[in-house]
## 1
Amino acid sequence: MKAKLVTRSQSMSSTKTRSREPEREIAYFSMEIGIEPKMPTYSGGLGVLAADMIRSCADLKVPLVAVSLLYKKGYFCQKLDANGNQSELACPWDPADYLRLLPQKVSVTIENRNVVIQSWEYRAKGVSGYKIPILFLDADIEGNNDYDRSLTYYLYGGDERYRLAQEIILGIGGVRMLKQLGYRSLIRYHMNEGHSSLLALELLNERKAEGGPGWDIDGVRRMCVFTTHTPVPAGQDQFSYDLVGRVLGDFIDFSLLEKLGGEDRLNMTRLGLNVSHYENGVAKEHGIISREMFPGYHIDSITNGVHSATWVCDSFKKLYDKYMVGWKSDPFSLRNALSIPGEEIWSAHQEAKNKLVDCVNAETGAGMDYKTLTIGFARRATAYKRADLIFLNVDRLLSIHKDVGKIQFVFAGKAHPQDWPGKEIIKKIVSVSHRLKDRIKIVYLQNYDMELAKMLISGVDLWLNTPQKPKEASGTSGMKAAHNGIPSLSILDGWWIEGCIEGLTGWSIGAAHEEKGIDERNADSLYEKLEKTILPMFYHDCQSWTTVMRHTIAINGSFFNTNRMVLQYVLKAYLD
């Protein structure tokens, strides 16, 4: 039987025929949600994507409620010294500045201890005023012991024991909190990555407690949706059953858990796949890779997007308001950007670029120039993203800079506190910036967050992305740039396989069917595109450059947005 989603407006209009319509029918669980720049409840792409999805659900009046953890001490604030050494500082914040503390409490059992949980509520408002509640679960309550109070302090902090305890709070505690708050009409539970997969165990226990003869796996499967974002096994949460036994206890029959989560270790991705009626990757290529990683599962794909109104900068908002009235509620209308005069697109871009250059110069004293081709790279600093690939052959880069056209670079991105290779990449880029400071201007901005991201993706001239294939599940930074007319120069992986129309929405690095990211070959391709195509166009053919900008908006901006993405989830996962 197909589910019927009922929005608040539909519920109100149908009160004459039905006594009560369900207000919320979908519960969306995510380990991180970046809904406010100054709320450190996110580390990067996963949390920002979750927030963008929630915003679009509010715009489209999808009856959803979201659940995450509070993280009272956040992820971390990044400090870089003169040599690029990263240190991690606390991110103090007061939840009461943004959230409303709810009076209801629930408890979960962790290591045979009763841990009490409360929740804070945020309401994300859509373009029509419809609001999506977001619940941030918090264990920092008097009566819990010090360790248990700390379980909602740090995002991606601690060891495996700490992480598993957090996932018990998110999955099991989240389902209980929804029930305690009166969300009785939920028909779908959407797990955004494997962190929340334990919610299915709570649903199984609930149904068994209601008097079922056995474990109603099929019944729970009809309720659950699972999205995987990880194209490599190392990125999946896995726990030994010894640890699970100590932390989770006898919450559920272990033979059932091994059947659903894997025989050797509890694999949260496999658990999510086994308890869901719909599973998807986050780009077409990622769907293929996920099916290869997990043979026998019908893993579909819904390519990620970004929330258009959030990521378009002020100068382009004015331009879109002038030529495409209603684009905020209907991002598909960005396809009409083809009718915007090139000189007005260039003017709007220059306003955003000047703002970025002024900010960079004020913070770093780098002396960046308004007219020089500015290339941006801002991602999590980790080895597979290869932020340093552009410097593989510094002599060739210098030759291009001298003989073809000037280039300057703006980098940003945090390395996880335990990611030593990622930290070394930051140091390498800072070292190169010192060596080349009298020739090529290079800056690495510290403490990358949503506010800095918005300035970067709209203020650079070209967005660079150089991951090792096939490790990029999707990627959304280039989508954000595209909404501001910024073309990408990127490896053909993740979303860019779908978004790249060579010379029209940007440019590719490397071959489409290259199985592994060979550094030298990729770097040669990168330099070739800069030398032969991009720099000559930027400096000598402004009309062609603005044509690329227009098509970037019209083709990629109009498609790679979360309004389209949410509609696909509704049709494929929520209504099915």
## 2
Amino acid sequence: MTEPSILLKVNQLTVALPAGMDRENAIEDVDLEVRQGQIVCLVGESGSGKSVTAASVMGVLPRKLLTISRGSILLEGEEIAVASDRRLCELRGSRMAMVFQEPLTALNPVMTIGAQIAEVIKIHEPNSRKRAIDDRVLELLTDVHLPDPAGIRHSYPHQLSGGQRQRAVIAMALALEPALIIADEPTTALDVTTQAQILKLFRELLFKHKSALLLITHDFGVVAEVADEILVMRHGRVVERGGPRDVLDNPSHPYTQALVAAVPSFRFRRSVEGTTEPVLKADNLHLTYQSRSLSGRKRETRALNGVSFEIGRGETVGIVGESGSGKTTLAKCVMRFEVPDRGRISINGHNIELLSGAGLRNFRRRIQMIFQDPYKSLNPRRTVGQAITEGPIYYGTKYKEAVDQAGGLLELVGLRRHDLDRFPHEFSGGQRQRICIARALAMEPEIIVADEPVSALDVSVQAQVLDLFESLRKKLNFSMLFITHDLRVASNICDRVAVMSRGRIVEIGETETVFRNPQDDYTVSLLAAVPGGLELTVQAARTDNKFAAERR
């Protein structure tokens, strides 16, 4: 058999950083090949150069900040490192496409999902008929397993959950069946079942259309699931490369060994004592969203349907479930960003819907939220220091004290004190999420609502942040509502876990009990879909009260 053709060849690629940065080059002497039908994974911590490598290939580097100083990039034999803007526009979408890490910034907020996917086809295939384009859009939305494709094609990005938006971006990238797909953390916002579907879809596409995938990820579970070759990057250099067995099972570089050791696994902690006093209680919450399209079609979405739970003082309760199950809507109700149609939410026995004026301001200080999308939740015109100190200063902390506290918090979440003077766009996605965590902790809240707070973080920083949450919880005795699609993360930090599906809590209890002995079929399906060769033998868990974890 002939060897598969090389679709992408990068040789000695070096991208220079502006003067005054922590190192001379963003990436240096990077070599890689991606062959037809192959999935090559770039892994490494935030700031290691993974996204810069991808942006270089796509020709989307910010030219005033980052420039290619040497090296070549061959796409199907064509040199594109010095290609004109016109030629790069012709290649983007048709021969190479990119799935970005943050879907909300990649989608146009004033265009429907269907119109944005159709736009890609119209630009590159202007003679296509409207009926054919409409059929292709529906086919793509169905392929990425979005619910109600006919309805979602008429929806706007803000009307979808984070995971649904990511699937829409993937559908857009697949529109013209490009030879090379570059995916920058494409499964970060996806629940485990959808993640498995998307990874399977990528693999099917490679063989069906003779394409290839350059996958950037910090999730070693995903890497173990799909990688044909792995490149480990650190400080802009490739420090190790090889197949999954070599890199994951027998890493040779100390940095790779540290990354593999930090991969989260199912680890159940002892429940905290003295959690009988509920600090937050939700009783029979109902919330239905109603919308109407431009054509007048009415649409109803039952986001919450009889949700009840409580959180004890010092306790961490996890909410897990697929995208669109109601997790984030529940968090918004707890924060009073949304008001439920029926039901009651109380903090220390006080109904939050009755709060106003000084009482509402005091409530805002006692409960803080860490949002799923860090880029959306940070003001691009304000420095990191201004973002973190704004809350404490508003509530009376002296400026100098607030700045000193902010610098200490940045160091706690793995950044540097002098990063206070930088702006959000100067950080990677994982670094921005750490800034959001520091901002929430600055208020020393009684309750933290964390919506996927570690989904954008690499495994080593993820482990540090989870440890940080735990140490601060013990020190400050705050309670936490922890929303995540990663069941392994939930097992590490949650005392109890609630499983949500279609707006309902289908199962709730101590984390170890729920995961070792799931009672609902939906919980079983979530556990069975955990990526990375960690197949949970649920039947064995039920009969023997043990988890069985196997490498595929």
## 3
Amino acid sequence: MTGSILEGQMNVELASDYYLTNFKELIEYIGSTYTDLLSSEERGFLLIFSQLPRESQMLYIRMLTRKGEWFRARKLNYQEIPDLFGAVTSLEKSDLVQVYPAKSMLPLAAVIGLFTKAEWLLQLKFCGIDTASLKTLKRAALEERIFELAEHHSALSYFENEILFCLKGSAVFDTFKLLYFGNQHQDLTEFVLRDLGHYRYEDYLINRDTRSFQDKSQLQAHQHYYAIIEPLEEVLLQSKAEIIALVEQLPATPQSDRLLDRRIQSVKLRLARQLERLDAPQQALLIYQQCNIPPARERSARIFVKQQRIDEGLNLCREIIAQPRSEAEQQFGEGFGYRTARKHKLDWQAPSNYKPPRRTLTLTPTGAGVEVDVACYFSQNGECHFVENDLFSSLFGLLYWEVIFAPVKGAFTNPFQIRPHDLHEPDFLTQRQAVFSQANHALLSQELLNDAITSRWTEKFGIANYFVNWSWIDEALIHTALARIPLPHLKAIFQRIWQDIRANCSGFPDLILLTDTGYELIEVKGPGDTLQANQLRWMRYFHQQNIPHRVVYVEFDSLG
């Protein structure tokens, strides 16, 4: 989901100290909301920072939001901080920066990346080392060679006339970001995008009662989790032993913290899937059996069958069919179970094999894309728009706006959310039953629905919403679609989205054809392209609900 509109036309000029304003907004929230969870070091940081001179505060944030903890003084040049060394003096006295002056020994591993290749070659030459053979080395190889040479040339740890700053307190900021955003992938960039006008957010309720973390142990559990998965992407590229070692470090999934539980399980699924690729199915199976979210049972069933443990694989398919955790999982259980049973000459009910209406077109490609070419072709019959997932998801998001942004405890914890934290949890609607019933009142008549969605469009235009793509769907299309699509069809589509938001917000046909008498949904497939599983599930549902749809297969003529 895009969930927002880019307002690139806005010519917003940020104040020179915008980052200081944003940082203070973050830490003031932390100080007022999480004082009881902060360590003495973290509370001390808030006090010390508040007492720093303004330029020292700005310099600290500048370094804090750059990569790494080591900085060369000559590379720090900010117009709004004219007295750099005056600013750093206060930081040094407050123990927020450590200064390494010229001729002091520097930790090579920490600073090797601060200097360019040309600078290192000069330093090597200064130490009496022949650099002729080193000039052709790539950066990684050169650094490896520098470490080898440093064992015999201590002068490599000195740089004439160079002053370095080592930033302290970055771990405190990591804690603050986790408390504020509820994760460690968002940062102060969110403030900048808001201030530039690229994103606008709903004004939902945020206070001490809605905070993400209720006690110190919960915060520590999330910190522990993020510390463990920090090398995740690197480990996924390594051997089976490294992957298994990371799995063993992961904490047990906490039943009392659903968000952390899902995060841990999602990481386990990624690691197990990579073990499968590395031909370690038994180790992968043991991990899948620790998870209760899709596709853990699907992958387990596939491993059982691959290992010729047919009865176990089929029993797991029966379990999935009896208690599916998603429509996609149920479809897998039916289809995979049937194919496996048939191969081994066992009884199994054949799943329904729906084949949507199809048509083949021969077109000359224009270079605009096959979907656009097909839309142009059907425009002779009415308005044909390339909407893919955005039209129905946007209508859904507009109608259920108040449900999505309802003031539920723990749903919103920072001002940069396009959806509530618990959107994908099974009890999402249970927590919002009254406002959900109120929103559904608009489905009593076409007139009520049109009024609800069009008024919401006007009232909320441009405000970030997980479901609404403002930059792709326009008001004219909304009006025409509401006029052409019968109310029962929209009700049926919305109902299915609610059944599994994560899966059912995608898979919609590429095009919608709006005619004087109605509409049709058209999925476009170019040469060699086939229907995906989620697309076929939607089309089977369209067939059940009498929603007009078809698949158009495109062949390119000799000119293409």
## 4
Amino acid sequence: MVKFTRRSLFGLAGGVAGSAASLSACQSLSTEAKAQPYRGGVDFSHGVASGDPLQTRVILWTHLSPSIGGQIDISWSVYADKALTEKVVTGVITTGPERDYTAKVDATGLRPGQDYYYRFAVETPAGPVVSPIGRTRTLPEAGIESVRAAMVSCSNYPFGYFHAYQALAQIEPALDVIIHLGDYLYEYGPDGYGGETGAALARAHIPPREITNLADYRTRHAQYKSDPALQAAHAAAPWICTWDDHESANDAYRTGAQNHDPSEGDWTERKQQAVQAYLEWMPVRDPKAGAPRDALWRRFDFGDVISLICLETRLTGRSEEISWSAELSDLAPEDMPGKAKSVMQRVQDPARTMLGPAQEAWLAGELKDSVATGKSWQVLANQVIMATVRPPNFAQTLSPEQIEAITSPFLKGLVGFSQMSLPMNLDAWDGFPTARERLYTAARTAGASLVTLTGDTHTGWANTLKDKQDNVRGVEFGCTSVTSPGFGVYLPGVEDLGEQFADANDQVHWHDPLGNGFTLLEFSRNAVLTTYHKVSDVRAPDYTVRQVAQFITTRTEGGKPQLEAV
């Protein structure tokens, strides 16, 4: 195992920032695109980032912290080499308070499949102030052998140090892309989810309340991007991001959210303000003119190896939440089966959607086009578990002592619920089974080799996806979290919990309900190698990284993915 420390992280971040600072001392903007001098002080304390790469362009991002207000011109430059001697393209962008002093550039004129390095600068009377240097990479054209990626999700700042981000920043050779599957930040206040741990670690959320308006969401984004580990990961590779619920509010759907109360104002307004802050603070390409601002679905082709298709499963098309806890919490045990039957009838309503009609039609077209243009794998960047998952019958799999040790009323109730063999999580695709079948039909019609990447659960999964006729439609890899605790934390002492889930579900090959980390993916034309890594305690400043599982996915003669442990 390799051991990392927060000191090594600050050394890495300092090395990047230090090289930028030395440039500012000896180099003027005469070789950059010229910007108007800014009369106040500025700094780039939130780092740099890149994302949404295409074959000839990529989004570059930064944020300024000015000492006085007003509009500010920022020069930006892209180089072909790490020493910043081979300039490729340069320009000037203006930012100001209307976009919270963030700057987002769609840098064009680049070559496919190339590493590039970039930086930003502001001219002041005292000389140029220069940002850290970032590395990015454009998408390749056809003919490549493989794609190296990582996937992460669920990075709750109060729950611990972002060790997984630091580890990704230090991977050599550097990754082609980092895929973030949502819950990049959390909306809670210090008295909410993670608050107690955050207080103990001096990582409490800012502002010190649940965020509900534009100023709050901007401040929370700024807090997360102040983290050196996150800055290092953003500077190391381009990111492709999609949001889940906590970027707005827990268990969000098109017309509301579990964690939104009418006393907090209009949901549509809150949702749009969360989206505005996200588009300002994240290295994502804004939706095309005329499209809804929350229509964050898009596609990225990595040569002829994969089409990465990002889904939006929260704010544009998702039907109203149905929750077991809300439906069954006040019922006597003898009344639960009848109520559960009526709930499942509502769950199976064909009108319920996860994506909405517009995105469903778009996805079907993208799957067909990807296959028709010779891409080997159709990969979905998806937020919530797609496989059918039922809990083990805990009344049989847990000992009386283990059941007695459960203190959570929710988990106590889960023991009884687990005996009904019903889907456990209706906030996942299990709550939208007819919509899931439509997705599987689209994949079958297209002839897709479907690989689904999933976040949300804070736990690791390797699943085979099957339709209601038990036909294999694809595979799914669910990543663990950066910091948020997994389900196993709430059932201490149940060492075989992952095996219990695998035994109870024919679609689940492997499940790990504990720990935090990241997942590496290597796609080639004929196989996908998936490797799960864990970091040690995210509440401690020093940490180690270890590999915990590995799977290989190949295609059968009929083109269907087949998953095996390595």
